[in-house]
Fold these 4 entries.
Entry 1:
Amino acid sequence: MAKKSPRLRLNSKSPSARIKDLGPSI
């Protein structure tokens, strides 16, 4: 997953940002 979305790893710090990435990801 990290390889597919390097941004997710960065957002891992912020739970709020993580949900944002998950939205478009799905």
Note: The chain has a mean pLDDT of 60.
Entry 2:
Amino acid sequence: MPAIPLPFVIALLLLLLTAVISYRQEANLKPKVIFLLSCTCLVVITGLRWIQTIAAIHWLQPIAAACIPPATWYCFALMQQTRLSLWHLSGPLLTLLLLLFRSFWHVPLDILLFGLYTGYGFAVLRILFRNELTLQRVRFSDLDHVNKAAGFAGTLLVFSALIDGLIALDLVGSGGRHTMVILTTAQLLLLPLLSIAVITSSHAVVIDSGEDLAEPGQSKEPDSQENQNIATLIDHLIRQQQLFLDPDLTLNRLARKAGIPARQISAAMNAVHGRNISQLINEYRIEWAKRLLTTTQDPITQIYLASGFQTKSNFNREFSRITNTTPSDYRRSVST
């Protein structure tokens, strides 16, 4: 029975994943498909280099590799904005130009790839150190999950840059004797992991119909009274319309309902309450869950879903943070 090289097995799995996502017509389909197809092309080209000596394959591999960082960024950028600047195509295009004019101007492609993977890796990692404005299109209940996925994806991109540096050292030290082994092993390990991080995080993005509210231009900082007015309005809106029960609630959706730009809402809630908006939304949900725990005999699984949470782990973590007890212990304590 003929053996199938491992790169083609992984490429087949990535294609199956692309087909499943396309068949389900999931939200944010375009960036997922672009990313998965970029990974598939790179894995296939890597596999072909093992069994073929076609010169075109040596050209295609660095171009395909240069597409991975912007494709990864595209998936995470959708959490804040709806369009990707065409400037993000400059990396693959510059790689192509360097290949075309290699005989006249020899610049090591490893340096370019190192810069691309490092730059985009740290750009994704920035999500961990910014407030919820960076993720204003993400469900409040999924913010922690997306932060972890961004940290994982950013770390993988930076690690890929280190691999490119290791390949450059191998080219200098041993004439590239170990380059193919290093490159293939790294790609076969990193691309599936990167795919998992990107695809799982993109499920948390909610695409609403309609345009986002325009952010105001440069203006003076709102005073404490203005922040208090915004916080009071948001609190009234959330309670009156029970927006916290919507599991798909995002900062963008809340801003549109309130008619106030997301940046002003975030700043006001932080200034008045000393906590970010996602923590406050979870507090509304826990307050509702406590009422259900004391007035009904519904199972906890049904209660956390009815309170706007999507996972039991997130519900238990937030319940414990706010009440310093578990849902089961809370129900027992109020019933005795």
Note: The domain at 224-335 is CATH 1.10.10.60 (Arc Repressor Mutant, subunit A).
Entry 3:
Amino acid sequence: MRREDIAQVTEIDREAFPTLWPPVNYERELENRLAHYIVACDEEERVEESEVEASLEKDPPGASIQGKAFI
């Protein structure tokens, strides 16, 4: 996982779990030499970050993002 993945990972986290892990926690974990995070995506269903940001702005909290893959 890279720092630029955090916004998309946070959105997936919001969709998947009842409690949100704040983005700052992911930033800290990226500095943790003992932790390793892998981001997987489907290139055929790839959604660019600008599309994710636009979706976050218009969708209410908890809105579905199913069927989209994030990088």
Note: The chain has one domain: 3-70.
Entry 4:
Amino acid sequence: MKLEVMPKQRAMEAEQREEAMEMSGLELWKHEKPASMVVFLPPPPPPPPLVPAAAAAAAAACGEEATLVPPLNFAMVDDGIFRSGFPAAANFRFLKSLNLRSIVYLCPEPYPETNAEFLAKNGIKLYQFGIEGRKLTTSELLLLQEPFVNIPDDKIREALKVVLDVRNQPLLIHCKRGKHRTGCVVGCLRKLQKWCLSSVFDEYQRFAAAKARSTDQRFMELFDISSLKHLTASHC
């Protein structure tokens, strides 16, 4: 027996199916994640231009970091002890960074006014031990002979007493080029520190280079350290 569906019933079923589909689409829309949105923000405004005073201060700060120039032949000898050639004005900022208390100056000429002003401004004490320098004459150069240089033992000894006094440190030892007079003081200090002579001479020659003098090395070899040994406890 074949059942026939009435037209009214068909219409009701169709209507119910449409409602079910609408509800299903609504539920799907509710659970569907919305697409991510990209928000484009405008770029931040540029910083305001520096006023002249601020620009000058910034330039000075950059320059202070960029111009630390050590003197010729500068090197650290030991904790709180440095050596070099004669400092120029361009080296003052570098020297200031060392927080020096003293300078041991080994030339007989008066200290230049500009350098003296720098020391006074920064509370640095000057100890001068004038040791005469000597250049080879033309005939000595032609004969490859080296002159006898009278290195004053007493001045080297007094300079070492200043160098080894911790109350004077940090300090800088310098002459004109940081080679011969400074090399002799440092070489005698190395003997106090119980360096072997070959190491003392190697260090001297590293700074003196082609201008190394056998008279300087002879002086260091013969220098009597016995009267200074009690000063070296902190450096040996």
Note: The chain has nine helices and five strands.
